[in-house]
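Thread: Phage-like element PBSX protein XkdC, structure

OP (GT): Posting the sequence first so everyone is looking at the same thing. Length is 263 residues per the record. Can we get the structure tokens written out before standup tomorrow? I want them in the notebook alongside the other entries.
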Amino acid sequence: MVDVKALMQAAKNTTALSCEERMALYNSRRGDLMGYDCPICRNKGFVFLMKDGYEYTMECECMEKRRGKWRLQKSGLQDMAERYRFETYEAKTSWQKSILAAAECFCEEGEGWFYIGGQVGAGKTHICTAIANRLMLQGKGVRYMIWTEEATKLKALKTDDEGYEREINKWKTAEVLYIDDFLKTRNGVLPTDGDINLAFEIINARYNNRTLRTIFSGERGLNEIMELDEAMGSRIYQRCGKYKLKIGWGEGRNYRTREEGVV
């Protein structure tokens, strides 16, 4: 990391240089920021300027691009984000077009949740990843949670109060949380009380903070979630408003298998 104060002090000590020459010297130094090679700041993240006889620094425009990359890496969606965009979502049928329109509209709103359930392989993860990606481009911090993996980890920490609180707070407080395969279980069995209690703890915390946005995808429709736990389901139902979608189960709606020639 470039030491700005040290760099400015070193250049000031070069008394033979004019102000313009000192600015050029500052700005010619290379920084050590990674992930994007910026010709303006030379990877320092800032540029030096002179105004009314005063020297000052200004953040380089590349920092917004860098923050976008950092948000993507931190989100856990990096591997899927390039493939799963609105532009690559298959919207040939009326139901696919309706889903795409709803997802794009959701991204333009400043608050609320999004829930999509139903048919396996119908593009639920794709559309939700596209939403998360769009929100990251808007400057939002996103976390990606694969329910089956993270729920197992959290339940294993139940006897470690400090570790449990540290881990669950990441999901409770994420600016945008995308939960994939919400309440999915092996072989279609019902979620355990431990699963329901864990889900409720996260959802209730997020429900109580209207600034947090949550995206859900899963095989269960929201009515099924309500049947499992009305308190949890009603919170999701209320926060989602008009963004509660379910893809019906039927032949031709699994485009994952259709593309592979199975259907």
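GT: Both are above now. Quick notes for whoever picks this up: Confidence is low (pLDDT under 50) at residues 254-263. The first helix runs from residue 4 to 12.
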